[in-house]
UniProtKB/TrEMBL annotation:
This is 1-acyl-sn-glycerol-3-phosphate acyltransferase. The gene is aas. SUPFAM superfamilies: Glycerol-3-phosphate (1)-acyltransferase (SSF69593). It comes from Microbacterium ginsengisoli. GO terms for cellular component: plasma membrane. GO terms for biological process: phosphatidic acid biosynthetic process. Residues 74-193 form the Phospholipid/glycerol acyltransferase domain. SMART domains: PlsC. It comes from the Bacteria. The keyword Acyltransferase applies. The lineage of its organism: Bacteria, Bacillati, Actinomycetota, Actinomycetes, Micrococcales.
């Protein structure tokens, strides 16, 4: 178990990273739902058949399952090291977990496309059309609807995978949803997923064993309304502090942004701007 308590990290974390009190939220966004009835049946198959097989083969070490609420809306807020993260969380959770995946995983043709749709739907994925503007608002709305239906969803406050193994500063979309819906946030710390399935790998390795740590649920509504930038930032810091305690990663202290493709975009990244 981590040497330091989550409470200690919550107290220290805001002093370890820079702040943007007026930062806005919003996750990436979502495309039309992929066959609801078929998706439900496929997910039932994945949870009852594929998940036990995956647990048997890869034997992930799981800690804190007792911290997962048995009912009600829950956000699993996790660090993000590997593609396999979105599979290992649903596989080890005591309740169904839903997440968003790139729409291209659902639109392929032929046998490869069918297998891709089967795989992602089996583990609770819904298609997402990445982007900003209306696309981001649509994704936010889909997450909100799932939470209001009492479901559990998995999200990554860092926004994208950490390629160097450090924990990057959290974006406020997760906090926005938690404050807006009243959902409890269960912090998740993943270890070794980037070693078991590094970038470019097609299949996870059996060694090293992946570690999944579920932390105690965080209640954040006392921090203020979702419309408050300060409340969103404080809630995000509390979430990231808990993830930090569980994952034991080195803090990057900055946002994880992909390299800008052009000189103009690099200049925009260097200037103060709203991180989504």
């Amino acid at each position: 178990m981590p040497r330091h308590t989550v409470r200690a990290y919550v107290a220290r974390y805001p002093r370890l990273v820079p702040h943007d009190d007026d930062e806005q939220s919003p996750p990436d966004d979502v495309a039309p739902t992929y066959g609801r009835d078929r998706a439900k049946a496929t997910y039932a198959f994945g949870r009852s058949v594929l998940a036990p097989i995956a647990r048997f083969v890869y034997r992930p070490r799981v800690e804190g399952r007792q911290n997962i609420p048995t009912s009600g809306p829950v956000i699993f807020a996790s660090n993000h090291l590997s593609f396999i993260d979105s599979v290992i969380i649903p596989v080890t959770s005591t309740r169904p977990v839903y997440f968003l995946a790139k729409s291209s995983y659902f639109t392929g043709t032929g046998l490869k496309g069918a297998l891709s749709r089967l795989f992602f739907t089996s583990f609770g994925a819904s298609p997402v059309q990445r982007g900003a503007g209306q696309a981001a608002l649509d994704a936010l709305e889909q997450h909100r609807q799932m939470l209001e239906e009492g479901k559990a969803v998995a999200l990554y406050p860092e926004g994208t995978r950490s390629l160097d193994g450090r924990l990057y500063k959290g974006r406020t979309g997760v906090a926005f949803l938690a404050l807006q819906t009243g959902a409890k946030v269960v912090p998740v710390g993943l270890q070794n997923t980037n070693l078991a399935m590094p970038v470019g790998a097609k299949v996870p390795k059996l060694r090293p064993r992946m570690v999944v740590r579920f932390g105690e649920p965080l209640e954040l509504r006392h921090l203020g309304p979702a419309s408050s930038g300060r409340a969103r930032r404080q809630a995000t810091d509390a979430i990231m502090a808990a993830i930090h305690a569980l994952s034991e990663q080195e803090l990057a202290g900055i946002y994880n942004e992909p390299p800008a493709p052009t000189a103009i975009e690099r200049i925009k990244q260097a200037l103060p701007h709203e991180r989504r």
